[in-house]
Every structure is written in structure tokens, then in C-alpha cells.
Amino acid sequence: MTPDQTADRPGSTHRFDLVVAANRLPVDRVEAPDGSTSWQRSPGGLVTAMESVMQGRDGVWIGWSGEAGDAPEPFDDSGIRLHPVALSAQEIQHYYEGFSNDTLWPIYHDVIVPAHFHRTWWAAYERVNRRFAEVIAELAAPGATVWIHDYQLQLAPAYVRDLRPDVRIGWFDHIPFPPVELFAQLPWRRPILQGLLGADFLGFQRKADADNFVRACRRLLDLPTRSGQVTVGIGDSERLVRAAAVPISIDVASLADLARTPAVQARAREIRDSLGNPETLLLGVDRLDYTKGIRHRLKAVEELLREGRLANPGTVFVQVATPSRGRVEAYRQLRTEIERTVGRINGEFASIGSVVVQYLHQSYGRAEMAALYLAADVMLVTPLRDGMNLVAKEYVTARVDDGGALVLSEFTGAWHELRTAYVTNPHDIDGLKDVIVAAISDSRQVRRRRMRAMRKRVADHDVNAWAGRFLDLLARDSGPADGSRSGGSTTS
Ligand code: GDG
Q1: Residue ranges per domain, the chain?
Q2: Which helix or strand (DSSP H or E) is residue 325 part of?
Q3: Could you tell me where the beta strands, DSSP code E, fall in 118-277?
Q4: Is there a catalytic annotation at residue 58?
Q5: Is 386 a catalytic residue?
Q6: What band does 486 get if pLDDT is binned at 50, 70 and 90?
Q7: Please, which residues bridge with residue 39 across strands?
Q8: Which InterPro entries match (predicted)?
Q9: How far apart are CA 195 and CA 75, in angstroms?
Q10: Nearest CA owner, ligand 1 atom 5
């Protein structure tokens, strides 16, 4: 979409009933061969979910465009008003790559790699959160609903409340919320909690994440808490902040429809053909991130090959590792390590014309992803820690044939819903190997039964249900702080 399509949109004085704020806008600027540029929708269920709730509701989405420097003018895309927020090149380094991805991300994912603390990064994080809050305050209609997303914007709820006490503020955490023992390492632990407590309602992927947040408020701020709620302020300014699990999902209908198209079905067969029609096609699809357990997965496959429990020819492991955060050192190191391991495995076990590990450091379109899901006999989702993991939900949804098998780490949010997956602790390499073998060798009936149960669960809890539930919980009256009326529900 281009900015000129905003011509018939409300002018700059228009205020919106629903204001969504996320670090990124749901679009990327793409350049055509002739040098002209346009905006393209980023893939992902969040955009679809927001589209369905925003289109009927006079909504605006506030976020960074993905490029350094001045923000483009606000514009429309698929009926959603998009309002870019500017980030300088240094703010991208300090607020985004630094504080968000090299301080918070490791702390919130069990410190799988060490977190780095820099006061200059924190200053940028505060500044950018304040900038987002100012735009939110400017664009929100009286009494509007404000929905802020994720760990990059934890201070914005309190800043918005200061500027606009009339609006209702929700925040959703896409990643885990860490146990207080890890969270307490953050030099800025108190202002972060105070920032979040500006919200009326906080949504998390799992009940354990909501509980971790509430416990941190009790331990680090000394606030009165009970299950799923924190009391802030005193006297007339006393209010309840509610915290509950609202697990995110995917756009089930559109992915299942895509997987049923003849083109995608044919492409799935073509993928298998081009790999030499292996007996077993294993698949991994992840952003190249140390939280995803790609190294553990490769180690398990390597050992299975060495032990002869998997054989080449006969087995192919396709690992799509989408490029991610390549300017953060821990991600560069991980990439080097993974590529070295893939080379070693292929060096030892491949033969001319048949690699064992097909490693693809690339991004693919939705149709290609659906075809890969349909082609795979076993999907390996083995994160060491993951808020939800949408790939697991996408895989089962794409299996419109009830085929395939899902190996799923117990450290994902998805495991709390997909209980008939082949569960694994990815740190236990021997256990992971046994689970992979079981997923390959169980009878067709057993695998289909497991797959059907997971497909039903995801179909009954799609992304629209998620967005609807979040907004319902946000809209609910908190009730008096003495707890005589209950706040939001907490589910696992
Ligand atoms: C965070 C949390 C939580 C990946 N490669 C391609 C591609 N993808 C898509 C997948 C999936 C999405 O990206 C990745 O989502 P995940 O949930 O697996 O992981 P994160 O990016 O870490 O997301 C996570 C999520 O937020 C939502 O709350 O589940 O726990 O970490 O949709 O399909 N899509 C396309 N081409 C690719 O190459 N089209």
C-alpha cells in the first residue's frame, strides 16, 4: 500500500477507539527492480487477528517501520491505519538490538546466553517507550482501548496512564515472563514492573508467566497480591492490575485452506521427490535463535545417524533457519556453530547426490511453508524456552491429512495445549533421540490419533478467539481492590 491511499482517511486530528502499539508495524518496505518501493504485509497471525478486530472498530496500529531515521507519514493498509514511530540508527542499536534483544531477551529466556547490561541501552529504552506512549496518548479517543504488545514496550503502559488516565490499557507478553530469581538480576527491575503496572490487564502465554509477574511485584515492590492480581496505589487512587494466561494462536482457517490447495499439495510431493523420496523427512522451522534448540536437535540427529538408528539414504532433515538479529553477537556465534555442525554431519554421513541435513538460512513464502509442513513426516520443535511457538500450531493445522508427527519441547507454551505431541526435554539428548525414533516408528493409527487431537485443540482456539478473549478480559471491570469481586480468570 502507498501513502497516497490515505487521501480519504480521517485527518491528523482524528482519534481512534482502538489503539494497538507494537515494536514493529505489520508491514515491510520492499523495493521493486525498477527502484520503486511499496509496503508489503509481514507474514503472521498477529496481523490477521488484529485486522479482524481493528477493521470493525476504528483502529490504529503504532509501530516502527523497520528503517532508521524519520518516520514515514501515517498510511492505510488493508483497512488498518498505520502510524510509524521514528527510531534513529543509534536507538535501533541501543533500544532494539541492545536492551530488547541482548538484555531482556536472554533474561526472559532462562539466560541461555549471558545478558548484557548497559545504562546507555536502558536510557534509549526509556526514551523510545516514552515516544510510543506520547503517540498513543495523542491518537487515543476519549475512553479508548489501548493494546500494547511485548517486551520492547514494558514502560509504555505507565507512561500512557500518566498522560491519559481515561483510557483502558492492556499489555500482552509474547515471550515468557521469567521467575523472580532471574528477573531480579535486572538493574532496572523496579521501573520495569512499575511500567507494566500502568496497565489494567496483562496477558501472558501461560499461567506460570502470569504467576511469575505477580510474584515479582510482591517480592520486589512489596505490593499486596493474590492469584492473578496486584493492588497498586492507596486510598482513592487504589486500583487492581489483573494478570492472566491468554495463549496466542494462529489463523487456522486460512492456513488449512492454503494446505488444501492443489498447488500446495503438489509442491509437497515435489519437495519429497527432489529430496529423493526419503523414508523419513524430518523438519525444523525456526528463526535462527539460541532459544529454539537447533543445536540440540542437530546433535540428536547426528548421534542417531552414528548409531545407525537413522540411515542415509532413507533420512533427510530439512532445517529452515530464518535469518534473525544478525547484528547481535550471540546470534552470529550461533549461526557459525550451526553451520559448522551441519557441515560436519553432511561431511560424515552424506553421499554424492544425497545430503542428510538440508540447511536453509532463508525466508520462504506462506505457501512454501505449508508445503514443507505437509511434506514432513516428523516436525521437530525443540526450544529450550519459548513463549508459545506458533510453528507447532501451524504444523498441526497444515496437516489436513491428519498425517505427520510433532516432537515438542516441554519448555514451550504450545506444550501446555498440545498434550498429545511427542513431548521431549531437549537438554536430555538421549531422551530426545528416543522420542524422535518413537515419532517415526509408532503405528499410523497412533500418530493419526495424536495428530487429530492437536488439530482439534488449535481449531477450537484460533487467533480470533485469542484476540477476542484478550479484549474481553481487558474490558472487564476490575472490581474493588478488596477482592470482593473477582478479576480476570487464570487458565493454564
Ligand atoms: C515470538 C515468541 C510466540 C518463520 N520463518 C518463516 C516464517 N516464519 C514464521 C512462522 C511463525 C513465526 O514466523 C515464528 O513464530 P514463533 O512462535 O515460532 O516464534 P518467535 O518469532 O520467536 O515469536 C513465540 C510468538 O512471538 C507469538 O506470540 O509464539 O514464543 O518467541 O508464524 O511460520 N514465515 C514465513 N517464511 C519464513 O521463512 N512466511
Answers
A1: 16-245, 252-460
A2: none
A3: 140-149, 168-172, 201-204, 225-226, 229-232, 239-245
A4: no
A5: yes
A6: very low
A7: 29
A8: Glyco_trans_20
A9: 29
A10: 322
